[in-house]
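In the current project phase, we have settled on a layout for protein records. One protein thus recorded is set out beneath this paragraph:
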Amino acid sequence: MPVMAITVSATRNAHHLSEGMGFKPVRANVAEPLMERRMQITVEHLGAVQFEIKARQHTIVSDQPADNGGFDEGMTPPELLLGSLGSCAAYYAAQYLRKSKLAAEGTKVHVSAEKAKDPARLDDFRIVVEVPFELSEKDRQGIEESIHHCLIHNTLLHAPKIALEVKAIQLVSR
């Protein structure tokens, strides 16, 4: 079975061509209360270099490989970032395929990035979408354009504001 691969490069110069194809960017309702738009997770240190990450009723563990002092029982934070981008891209690719009455099953997304320095960060993200059948040029473009609606993709393209606050809490003894 042929595999059709689509490469989406996540660069700051990426342009949203989707409006010409009938896709409209999703914009938050200005009247919507801030708390309904704010997403939140909680991360708790478990010991060594392991952290429990909770969102809604879901929990995952982030860890480091053994050669970095961990137990290798979970993805590292950079791997979670790549996973977040990949799963978001896969969601939009699958949505496009379903809407176009094409099979979404078997579609795979691979995400990679280079480690950069000064400051330490990830750069040069690459998203490759593999579809297990031949695509028309229209559908290939449609998948690529739909991925440009991914929240994580857009967050990485447009540097977000990040506020940092460090608080000392007082534990109550029982």
User: Anything to note?
Assistant: The two ends are 64 Å apart (CA to CA). The CA atoms of residues 39 and 137 lie 36 Å apart. The longest helix spans residues 77-99. Confidence is low (pLDDT under 50) at residues 9-32.
